[in-house]
Amino acid sequence: MDYHIKDINLAEKGQLRIEWAEQTMPVLRLIKERFGKNRPLSAVRIGACLHVTTETANLMRTLKAGGAKVALCASNPLSTQDDVAAALVKYDEIPVFAIRGEDRDTYYQHIESVLATKPIITMDDGADLISTIHSKHQELLRQITGGTEETTTGVIRLRSMAKDKVLGYPIIAVNDAMTKHLFDNRYGTGQSTIDGILRATNRLLAGSVFVVCGYGWCGRGVAMRAKGMGAKVVITEVNPLRALEATMDGFQVMPIAQAAKIGDFFVTVSGDINVIRKEHFLLMKDGAILANSGHFDVEIDKKSLQKMAKSVRKIREFVDEYVLENNRRIYLLGEGRLINLAAAEGHPSSVMDMSFANQALTADYLVKEGDKLEKKVYSVPEHIDREIARLKLKSMGIEIDTLTSEQEKYLSTWEMGT
């Protein structure tokens, strides 16, 4: 079996951590048991480009239990947990191509290694796997049934491809599932982003001015958690509806050019490029701390910051100090990459339970229905979303009501009225 990881001797530690995560992933566990009996993915080759974490390991084991032949590479150079990669190779014989801190060339070579397995289904987190197929390996398009995409950023890229009619196979936007973005993006990103910032800096949030750039589901989550820790939260937005919502939620809303002057912490969660850039760095106070929780490291203009700085040094792990000409210091966390995975461990497993349940059931759906789908981006089928929510509630010991036959009739007819 071909693989490329840091150290196979880390496997035992990774195995224990995977087991710890699995304890709070009951929905995925139920799907794994069902897959083990029915084997719906028998001999299906799945190429996955995801964050190599304990939660992802449990997804890989679920897919393998269903009969799939899985190969995995990292979707971010700083998100790989090397002990997890080792455990998947040693104990599950899953080819993994991921090393924490890998350079750009190695990152793309690992994608090539996954594509060498000739996947029938792709799983992506940011769409790098899919874009590589379309730009360098179009011969693979003929055999691919479909794929999934986990992130807001990736879905934006793929919808653009579909709009331009260059998307070569159907994609299901796992990110758009209600059981994904309402929980993973809000509660997962909210908690894990704050966790990453605190681990990197050990700074107090209470009383600070905490600027959140973007008020989508991820931004909502980060703002909610920062507010809960006593920070004075400021939101920057370009969407008037989201800006209005942030205002109604009790947050101060202003342009980034104003926020740059007063912020102590800055977090970008917009999915766009150069949200914080040169003119904003020039306005920031001494000691401003910058972090990103968007998928790609493009939201903070690192190139301009590098050019502006008269000196750069790593002052502590995950913290780079940029000293500007006027001796003001700006601190960039985790090289501007996903701070929740660069400095912490990513989302809690109980949240990823639902996200990866969507991935597993969507793979099953693609095997059965993929040849009927057009080359465009689809939402997760509603019955999958509802089933995951039902299983999650069941695992939490929560019961809900069901409609009576009278209520069902009332909702399905126009004749009853008042």
From TrEMBL:
Enzyme Commission numbers on file: 3.13.2.1
Chief location of this protein within or outside the cell: cytoplasm
Domain of life of the native organism: Bacteria
Location in or out of the cell: Cytoplasm
One Pfam entry name: AdoHcyase
Catalytic activities: S-adenosyl-L-homocysteine + H2O = L-homocysteine + adenosine
Biological or metabolic pathway of the protein: Amino-acid biosynthesis; L-homocysteine biosynthesis; L-homocysteine from S-adenosyl-L-homocysteine: step 1/1
Cellular component terms per the entry's GO annotation: cytosol
Co-factor note (free text): Binds 1 NAD(+) per subunit.
GO BP term, pick one: S-adenosylmethionine cycle
Task of the protein: May play a key role in the regulation of the intracellular concentration of adenosylhomocysteine.
Similarity comment: family membership: Belongs to the adenosylhomocysteinase family.
Name this polypeptide is given: Adenosylhomocysteinase
Gene: ahcY
